[in-house]
Amino acid sequence: MDAIPITKKLIAFGSKKIYLPKFTVALIRTPGISPYHARFLVPLDFSKYDLRDYLYHAYNVKCFNIRSFVKQMPVRDTSQQPRHWFRPESKKYMTVEMEQPFVWPEVPDLEPWGQKEKKKQDREGITSQGVVYQEEAREAARTLRDQARMLLHRREPLVDQSIEKKKVKGVELSPAEQAKEEQRLARERELESMSRLKLWEEKRTDKIVQGDGASGYTIKA
């Protein structure tokens, strides 16, 4: 069944002209939805009719139906004011069904432009000011958990997933993979006969204390 075209005879559109809008509408990249749908980040006071009129008058995009939802942000604090909890402003999203499909262009390769180096420099600059990212704190906790698990079970995470998949499927390993697997098994046998104290002495970082005074408690690598 052909879709009925939207005209002013069926649905009345707004006629108020806005030359300098005070709102911002952002198109969100959502590769998981249909090409006939698009998702926008809109202000909280935006209605479905506002978005429909905005897309029609600004971009000549006709929408058949619009779904909206408000995402409540989690409670958080900041590094400048720890344990001063607050809830950031909620975000409102709207998903529209369009008459014509729209496909996002491919993401360009930004590696030659030094994007990773720029992000690394910005991150190092922020970290030097005492700001700790949540993912970095999680990675440090995950590393500490793996170390405690290694000392408890005397095992190291040396298992190669590609080799394990081949062993499960019964595929013959290459000479390099066979040598790597034999090395891993030899290391496991060595760890089984090694005490936890010796393993901790082997894995701990070689650090010394500068002195017995209060000013010498700084650990020197």
UniProtKB/TrEMBL annotation:
Specify whether Ribosomal protein is a keyword of the entry: yes
| GO MF annotation list | structural constituent of ribosome
- Swiss-Prot/TrEMBL keywords: Ribonucleoprotein, Ribosomal protein
GO terms of biological process kind: mitochondrial translation
Q: Which GO terms describe its cellular component?
A: mitochondrial large ribosomal subunit
For this protein, the record's InterPro entries field holds: Nucleotide-bd_a/b_plait_sf, Ribosomal_uL23-like, Ribosomal_uL23/eL15/eS24_sf
Where are the bilayer-spanning segments?
Answer: none
Q: Which family does it belong to?
A: Belongs to the universal ribosomal protein uL23 family.
Spell out the protein name for this chain: Large ribosomal subunit protein uL23m
Lineage of this protein's species? Eukaryota, Fungi, Dikarya, Ascomycota, Pezizomycotina
Q: Which gene encodes it?
A: MRP20
